[in-house]
Amino acid sequence: MSAPLFNIKRIMAYINLHKILSKLTKFFFFIASMVMFGVSAINAQAAVVTVSNYPLFLLSQAVTEGAPSAKQLLQAGEVGHHGSMSPHDIKAIQDSMFVVWFGESLENNLAASLNSAPNAISLFEFNAFKRYPLRNEQAKPISNTLDPHIWLDPQNAKAITRALAVIHSHANPEYKSIYQANAKKFAQRMDKAVANVQSGASPQPYWAYHDAYHYIENSLNLQLVGSLTTDHHLSPKASQLRRLNELRPNPTMCLVTQSTPAKGLLTKLGPVRTTVQAEDMSNSTDFVVGWQQMAEQIRHCIA
Question: Cβ(205)–Cβ(244) under 8 Å?
Answer without folding.
Answer: no
